[in-house]
Amino acid sequence: MSTDFQQGRTALGARLRELRAGVSQRVLAERLGWPQSKVSKIEGGRQTPTKEDLAEWARAIEQPDVADELAARLQGIESHVRSWHRQLCAGHRPVQDALTVEYERSTVLRAWEGAMVVGMLQTPDYARHVFSRYAELHRSPKDSEDAVRARVRRQEMLYRPGRVFHIVMWEAALHAGVAPPHVLAAQLDRLIGAVGLDTVKLGIVPLGAGVAVPPANGFWLYDDRLAIVEDWHAELWLDDVPSVSLYRRVWNSLHHSAVYGSHALRLIARARAHLDMA
Fold it and tell me: What is the model's pTM?
C-alpha cells in the first residue's frame, strides 16, 4: 500500500511540475513564500502537500481553476493513507465519527488488537487514558471527553441485533499498562461481561500459543469490503480485493490460535488476579 501511496504522490508532483512550466522553482517559491526545498520535495514526490498548499500553488501559477483537480488528486492518494497528523488536526472526535459511519454500514466486523483492549469494548475511563496518550504523542488537540462520548455511543451497536463482532486480542493486551491499575481492573471486568453478549465473539491468543503469523498491527475488517489498519503515523483504509483478502487471512490465522468462552475467561481472570496481587 505504501508503494501505491508513493506512486500517487509522485504522479501528483509530476502534474505540479507540468503546471509550473515557464516558472522556475525559485520564482514559484518566492511567490508562495516557501523555501525552494519545499517546492522541490513536493514536485519530487518526497513531501505530501496539503489541500491549502495546492490551492496556493494554483493561484501562484495563475491557474486557480486547477485547484479542484489537484485537490481531487490529493484526496485519491489519502483515501488509502490517512496520516494521524492530518486526521487529528481537529482532535479525536471527528476520527471517531468517521469510523462510526463504517460500523453502521457493516454487518460482520472482525478485529485484531495485540497492544491494548479493542476500542469497541473499552470502558470510558480506559478510553480516556488511551485518547490522552495519543493526543500527547501526536501533539493534537485534547478533546478526550468528546472522543470518549463518541466511542461510548458507538458501543450501543453491541446491544443491537443484526451485527456480529468477531474480536481477537493478544493476551498481552490484557496486561498493558496504558491506564492505572484500578482503571485496568474495571476494564477487565468489562471484558468478562462482554463474553456473554450474543453479538460478540471474543477470542484471546495466549502468550504461549503457536501463531502462524507474528502478532502485529491492530486492524478492523468491515464485512469483506474494507480493512482499516492502524500504524504509528497513519491509518490505512484498504478497499482493494487483494489487500482485504490478505488481512482476512491474517485474521483467520490469529483466530485459529485464540481461545474462546471459558478458556478466554480464565485468561482475563488471571490478568485481573495479577492486578489484585500487585
Answer: 0.75
